[in-house]
Amino acid sequence: MNLFSLQWKETFRAPQWEAKISIKIIIALVSLYFLGAFVFGASMTYPILNKEILDREPVEVFNGILLYIFFFELVLRFFLQQLPVTNIQALILLPFKKRKIINHVLLRSVFSGFNTTPLIIYLPFAISMYRDDYLGSQVMAWWFALLLVTLCLNFLIYIVNKNNLYFVVLLVLIATTIALDFYTQIDLGHIIGAGLDAVVKQPQLAGLFIFPLVLSYALVFYFLKRGFYMDAGLAKKKTVVQTGDYSFLNFLGENALFLKNDLRMIIRNVRPRQIVLMSFLFLFYGLIFFTQDIYRNQDSIMVFAGLFVTGGFSLTFGNYVPAWDSSYYKLLMTQNISYKKYLLSKWNLMVFVTAISTVLAIPYVYFGWDVLGIILAGSLFNMGLNTWTTLFGGLLNKTPMKLNVKAKAFENTQSFSLNQFLLIIPKMILPVLLYLLPAKFMGPAAGYLSLAGAGILGIIFKNRLADWITALYLKQKHETIEAFNK
């Protein structure tokens, strides 16, 4: 029996497979658009790195930054790449050899969209090299070497994904590389680039990159095989639960009970911790726009950046309420608790994290008081209105949440709907209008006050908004329970 045929049958026998395929087709069309943009950008890279301007060959400059591209790719894979290991427990019960199953899993990972980097980035650059009078053998050797490196990254991400400690090691390695580059004479990027420069000069050296690929494959193969037992690596881990009293939250009264549960959930489980980490990375979103003069004169872009800097947690966490509690939602609904207080606890958590993000974003004042003003105004809007908007979005999401499974790219396609797409209007377009209209007639200060004022009104009338949201949640309570039981 062929394992790929089993995978094919699983796809068409899954519940709502027609809807899933339709959404995947839409995602594929959108992805094609972005792939085209990447290909265009990659094709323009070579002319931009003109040797007449940099006094160096463009390929040498590009090779010098490839190490950072590899680091970025690993981080992106860690957050988004969906590794095909979820069906091992089912396959191990069937008459297949372990070696065959593991090879099948590793081979499936080769067809990941993340492995298209050699096609959408390196290949256009290689074509530009060929047009610049490089020999075909040189170009093919250089591209082939980068293809092998990409496959190495594809296999190594299995180990990085296994434990967050490996990801921390990766971050430390990135920070060390940057520190050595800036504060010492050691440039690891230049060392890696020199190896690829040698491949261009001597194409036969590309064959040496086969050895790291074989080594990484063997390493991951052994890594997976070592835990390939129902009573070992694939068994559920038994850990001692540390309750944590979080007594410092008692000042919140009855809301403290729910908030303590949320904190325990975040600390104990992979998926909510991933949301927290992603919200921290949102803090650096402003560096993309606040450092570029071309964006400083575009008020709408500045508003977007201000919202994202402090709104990473609130823009994501609320969309999964009450899915965070889907595993025991039926039990929760049988308890003598107030649904309003339950939702207010989620709101308090989002406001609390947004406030912390605002404090951490204060150093953006380095780029100007106007930047700090838009961040503070965006923070108040996130607290007062975007929190309720995301909670409303959670009402539309009735897909059960697996707390100990990482979110992967386009994983939760069942929760996508036109209504959630329309929520972009109050989340993104409304704050832009709240800023632009007053700013156009009365100046930027009026725009800041308008945006911040809307958020303050949301905080003042939080009880009324909570009553309205609670009524909607209670109206769909039984429908939600049924959805979470599937």
What secondary-structure arrangement, pairings included, does this model have?
Elements: H1 3-13, H2 17-48, H3 51-54, H4 58-80, H5 88-91, H6 98-110, H7 117-131, H8 136-162, H9 164-183, H10 188-201, H11 210-226, H12 255-268, H13 270-281, H14 286-289, H15 293-296, H16 299-317, H17 329-333, H18 339-360, H19 369-395, H20 418-422, H21 424-442, H22 444-460, H23 462-475, H24 477-484
Helix pairs in contact: 2-7, 4-8, 4-9, 4-10, 6-11, 7-8, 8-9, 8-10, 8-11, 12-13, 12-18, 13-16, 16-18, 16-19, 16-21, 18-19, 18-23, 19-22, 19-23, 21-22
Strand content: under 5%
From the alpha carbons, calculate the radius of gyration and give it in angstroms: 25 Å
Secondary structure class reads mainly alpha
Number of domains: 2
Order of helices and strands: HHHHHHHHHHHHHHHHHHHHHHHH
Mean pLDDT across every amino acid position: 79
Proportion in helices: over 70%
The major sheet is characterized as: none
Q: Which outline best applies? A: globular
C-alpha end-to-end distance: 30 Å
How many DSSP-defined strands? 0
Structural notes for this entry:
This protein is mainly alpha-helical and 486 residues long. It folds into two domains: 211 residues, no CATH class; 238 residues, no CATH class. The chain is 72% helix and 0% strand. The chain has 24 helices and no strands. The protein is globular. The chain starts with a helix and ends with a helix.
